[in-house]
Amino acid sequence: MPRARLLLLSADHDARHLYVQWFARTSDLVTSCSGSPTEARARLEAQGADVILVDLTPATHWDDWLRLVPDGPHPPVVVLTGWVAHDGRFRHRAFGLGCAAFVAKPCHPRVLAAVLGRVLRGERDISIT
Fold this sequence. Notes:
CATH superfamily: Response regulator
Radius of gyration: 13 Å
Strand order of the largest sheet: 2-1-3-4-5-6
Distance between the termini: 22 Å
Number of domains: 1
Order of helices and strands: EHEHEHEHEHE
CATH topology: Rossmann fold
C-alpha cells in the first residue's frame, strides 16, 4: 500500500486504538483518529487526508458522520460497519452518499488494508459483505 494519510472516524475508543496499532505495525498508513464528527471535520481541515475510514456502529448517526465530508473534491470515504441488512439498504445508502467502498464487519484488518489500498489507487464501488 502506498504511504498515505488515513483519517479514522469511530465513536468506539477501543476500535480506534486497535486499528491505529494494527496499521502502524503492518502498513505505510499514517493514521489520525477522531471520536466525533465535529473533531473529524477539524482534523480534516487542519491535517487533510488521502482516505477516510468511517467505522459506523449502532450508536452513530449516518448523516452526522458521512455528511461531514465537504462538498466538492474530497478524500474517498470507506464505510466499515456491522449494519449489513440482507436487502443491502445500508450499502446502497453509503454508496448514495458518495462512499468509495463498503466493508462489512467482522473484517480482518488485512482485508480492510487491501480495500484501502484499492481505494487509494482510484477504485470505487467496492463492496465486501
